[in-house]
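Hi support team,

I submitted a single chain yesterday and got back a structure, but I'm not sure I'm reading the token output correctly. Could someone confirm the output below corresponds to the sequence I sent? I've pasted both exactly as they appear in my results page.

Thanks,
R.
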Amino acid sequence: MNEKIIILDFGSQTTQLIARRIRELNIYCEVLPYNKFPLNDETVKGVILSGSPYSVYDEKAFKTDLSVIRGKYPLLGICYGAQLLAHISGGTVEAAGSKEYGRATLTKIDTKNPLFKHIHTGTQVWMSHGDTITRLPASFHAIAGTQDVEAAAFCVEGEKTWGVQFHPEVYHTEDGMQLLDNFLIICGFKKRWTPSSFIESTVEELKKKLGDDKVILALSGGVDSSVTAVLLHKAIGKNLTCIFVDHGLLRKNEFQKVLKDYEGLGLNVIGIDASERFLNNLAGVTDPEQKRKIIGKSFIDVFDEEAHKLQNIKWLAQGTIYPDVIESLSITGTVIKSHHNVGGLPEKMNLQLVEPLRLLFKDEVRHVGTELGMPIHLIKRHPFPGPGLGVRILGDITPEKVHTLQEADDIYISMLHEWGLYDKVWQAGAILLPIRSVGVMGDERTYKNTIALRAVHSTDAMTADWAQLPYDFLAKVSNEIINKVKGVNRVVYDISSKPPSTIEWE
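Hi R., thanks for writing in. Yes, this is the structure output for that exact sequence:
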């Protein structure tokens, strides 16, 4: 079992980011609701308390009994976590005279304290709170301060307990990674969690769990399902059967290309062309949520039919990753956002679920795929929505519209590769708008379709910023699409960020 850090989530927007930073330091960690600390888990080496949208003195603030943790594990409170430690120990937390947001400078640091080893006075940190600790409890000692915050960080006498009122996990805190690494050293970690160690332990666990049982997996062509397939194949070989369904909404020639890739990896893959069935089911539907539901149900129906043709299948594998798991449960344990990979197993299939990547972030999945020796174009493939071009065709879906978008999208993605830009953006794609506009082609007036181009920078799709692609590149792409794609006379570029916009248009 992996030794780990437990991050207790009090509702902060940056809780996932804390976990990502710990993982980047090659230490395994798990995010749990603030009131779900795992008692009697011998693999826990330390605990982090996250921030929160609440004040510690609010009636509805999230609070928990920390007596089962304090003094038993090294403990680090971040922002609300630090204020909670002070508050429940008799200190005073009050609304700050002015809300403390943005950069601040640590003007005094106790460099002898192990939490601040290799961190020096003058380092920049990121504050984000409306409250501040105005009086520390008797056994608490300030070990860092700023011009406005006397106890920017503290330690507790006789305990391995620390608190910081800034956010070491965010990019703008200069020595944040050093501080987190110092805490991990305090926790006594000896082994570092790496892609190779994950593969080794996971393959062994899969062998024990699955034995000689047979497993099916729905492949999408995306990174998560592809890495899941290769990892399972490494563990159980021929007992894995993969099903790749063409719902008619894939990119140009994608069905054939992906099948060839999978066969090259030695996977046992069944390719199903169900495009006509999907497009018939979608005929005349314009509501985006209804389209998603139709595509989802049609996929389950096709997959279920193919699965029943196989014999003695006991397990369904899915490419669930950690953000799916975290987002699917609030800190109180109720579902706040459903994911198709979390709890989406059709009951009629009567199969057990295996999700070997459910504890990995997207970037870790890519690292594991690289370690497994998978082709780089599969590893670096941009995220692509499950409903495919169905959520990039606004309005009703027809075979003609699918063809138009496939051609435009193929030009866009191919030119991103040609110009060396594909790997510099996180996700890109074309969208067919339900808008026709007047144009002039040759000496004739036209009234044709509009294509929108989208490209964003992101790490995990939680937030995204539009990519500032070169003007000459966009001009060339626009010219190629208008000249070569029948029915298109206008191309626009989406310069919206998430939030407030979403990455996909539907």
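A quick pointer for reading it: Residues 81 and 163 are 7 Å apart (CA to CA). Let us know if anything else looks off.

Best,
Support desk
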